[in-house]
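Annex B, item 7. Sequence and structure tokens for protein A, then protein B.
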Amino acid sequence: MKFDTLVQPYSNSRYSLFARNGMICSSSPLASAAGLEILAKGGNAVDAAVATAATLAVTEPTSNGLGSDAFAIVWMKDKLYGLNASGRAPKEISIDKVKALGYDAIPKRGWIPVMVPGAPKAWASLIGRFGNLSLPEVLAPAIRYAQDGYPVSAVLSYLWNKYVTRGLKEYEGKAEFSEWIRLFAKEGEAPSAGDIVRFPDMAKSLKLIANTDAKAFYEGEIARKIIEQSQRDGGFFTLEDLRDYDVDWVDPISVNYRGYDVWEIPPNGQGIVTLIALNILKNFTFDKKECLDTYHKQFEAIKIAFADAQKFVTDPQEMTVDYHGFLQEDYGKYRASMIGDTAKSYEGTDPSSCGTVYLCTADKDGNMVSYIQSNYMDFGSGIVIEDYGVSLQNRGYDFSLDPKAANVLKPGKKSYHTIIPGFLTKDGKAVGPFGVMGGYMQPQGHLQVLMNLIDFGLNPQMALDAPRWQWTHGMDFTVEPRFDPQMVEDLRKRGHPVTVSENYYSYGRGQIIWRLENGTYVGATESRTDSNIACY
């Protein structure tokens, strides 16, 4: 029997799901099952989140891997914690050295955009601080999937094929990418839906990470292999870069939006884009979602938020302004006053003078985690550590070689970072975690999903399934194919250059878990992917 797993001729949607003792929402059914397995063994929401994240590194290699970065917001025993596990640039890199190699900008692939991966240290740090179980217990499902194999799902197969087609053209004849081709493009093809794939090299690395509390990755066997390959192929890493790396525990930042506190990780992450936009939009009243004025004001607010973030946001130690100023009510009112009846372009403004895979978990005790990790652009840098299955992110691609830019490349610096977990509270009580993965779509997805929930009263599943729009650059926006054609025309008349996209895969993939007053969890997961909710 032959069939196309992506063809769905009949309109359908999921319902929000309800559970009492725990819930896992992720973009992979196998990863959600891994998290639920850990809950059943006595793990808490943090244990389940790490198990799910590690499994996603195996079962969704098109988006993340063992060389990813990560961020998390943890609600544990009625308190909120933030984790920034983004990497730093090698200490030996510099603008002059990159330019001496013939580059006028940071390349997208290869060793130059690779930064120190944060995900393995994030897993160990989260378990060490909050876990009920040991790291070997928590990583066991991921190790099993890597060693024994798993069937490729429909959307994963589609994305894998898309990226392999691109990668084979881009990497042909370049020795530094040979391991990527061997691991992910065997015989020049991507696996089809239903094919069984195995990653024994990843299993080996996961065991080393588990049994050494991630030290093997940062100062032991894996670290030495990373340095050896970097030095052989023209990278800038030294053992000191890996050995000195640590995660940052941070205080999440927030704005109050119509009685709800919306929490994000502070810069270098771009969660502040969502908060700037909400701080502007709360100065308006929105009665209807499918309304020209609603979309117009959302479009203008997100352009303003990105203008501010892209001008100023970088490593917080390098920022020239206090980012808290963007979140003040007076600044939101000031920026809101700039929005008229037609589309405009905006410049970033100093506030003192008046911008991947996601999962969320919950346990029987009310603890919850909002977690995200990413290789940035599909498989990342294209660099895979030989015999260890570690695919490295290309987060440094966002650095600038312009010395005047806020996000200019510097040794040991963190870059502007796109991945952002979100969390919602009300009157000091947890409502729950939410997130939408997808590069610069992420803060836009946060904004749209939150307004769908808070302003327009949609249930969590409908809040995720609703058609989305996306700012791309300048004045330009795209919308999903399901978007109302008349609304597109009306927005164009307001001065918005709007293009109807040909696919749904560039508009993010999200998950939500809300906790009701009686303690029941309600969960929703993205209909645009192979996502799944595991609960009991």
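Protein B:
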Amino acid sequence: MPLVETNTTYQAFEEVVKRSPDKTSLVYLGEKFTFSEIHQMVLRLASSLFEMGVGKDEKVIVYLYNLPQTLITWLALQRLEAVPVMVAPVYTSYDIRYMANDVGAGIIFCMDTNLSYVIDILEEAPIRKVVVTSMVDLIPGWKKIIGRGFGRIPTGKVPKGKEFVSFQKLLKTGNPSTLPPFEGEPEDTAVMLYTGGTTGFPKGVPLSAGLFIYRLIEWARAVEPLVPFGEGITLLAAPLYHVIGQMDGMTPMLVTGETLIVMPRVVLDAMFDHIQRYRATRMFAVPAMYRMILEHDRVDQYDLRSLKYCGTGGDVLPTEVAKRWHKKFGIPLYQGYGATELCAAISLSYARDGIPPEGAAGKISPGSKFRLVDPDTLEPVPPGEPGELLATSPYAVKSYWNKPEETEKCFLEIDGEVWYRTKDIVEVDQDHWLYFRDRSVDLIKHKGYRIAAAEVERVLQEHPAVIAASVVGVPDEKVGERIKAFVVLKEDIKGISGFELTKWCKERLAPYKVPQYIEFRDMLPKSKVGKFLRRELREEERRKITE
């Protein structure tokens, strides 16, 4: 029997509900919700939204933390064949204004704590209704009293006005019998996520239902045979506005019918407690999260042995983190590689293949297609050579939302299929293991060599005193570019010099890859999803030259 028998998201959810109506679907702040309970809330919310005029293809902004309400909203919009636009709850009015106007959103779901940013843009955006919720809307009253009494629940005030409505009211007033028939197709857009743009403006990425379900199925299969389908428990460690969070959050809801542990914010002690208490078997997080876990001074006070599959992606996994994790917990970190435009991972480390080779970012998923090309000519590279990765798959993304110029740069039609240009340099071996080398835009050209910034960063980050490093090329008339590293040291480290780090690199890198300059910083610029922004450092250096 296949994991799901449909290529549409809402029908997949209904299949899961029919299979396991009384099984625990969500765990949140100690409360448990069965699949049938979530299903009824989804139908009531969908009915209320339908009465508000939400219909097929309408874009609705979801500006929430990881809450049950976030998942219920997402599913209710699937039922109406509308499109949730997932937005980071920490974005300011500047970002929300841009996105609301970009997609023409008439409705936004937000927290009581970030409502002020929404109020700021109401006169400059098409929003007609603001649905407000809080972290404690779906927990018992006595827990709210205790939480607020101890000052543990952040709250915000909701002004009066017809444009504001509470999430709880929509749940209470919805009548599922008024809903129209569901007629969704695999080609329909299931969700829109935003990713960074080369022009400085974020790009909306519309992910089709067919592509979404295909990726969820592979996400589920990665864990096989460590945990039988239906018996896993996922701790959601990634935000639902990120494609990793979408995969980890929706796989139990739409494919496996398993339990999902949801936390509004990731606090390490709380995460450890939830893993121990509920016997979580799976989590997926960025490499920095695993480093933080390893260095947490209370991690040994918790029993985390229930974890069977720990996945990672979104950034390069430092070798020393992978080795330390395996040594401490006895299980590998299973790395994947992907992009928002590919709907998460085009390559995954499947447990059935055993411990992944060192440095491998998974195997190309069945059903996905790839090509490695020269980034300048787009001609295929010889077998075994690194090249820019082009990729496509069933129901692939074909364009950005409302961004024709960006679309033209990043999507190609080859032999009647649309391929996404990842701008990443990778190698793929004969067994289809993928090895990430670097972003093509982050290759440093020094004395005719092409040097991967990520490789130099990896070596620096393996030094026991270094917590973070970013490497860029600084323009130089004689050699093209010189290598400069920006380094952040751990707080308790004293007396580490640039000379010592240079010596460390010389022992581990070819001479032409060793940084010529090392600058110490208290912090490095990051995007709102936690990725280091090399481009900002490059721009700083170029401004110094021109001033």
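Comment on protein B: The radius of gyration is 24 Å.
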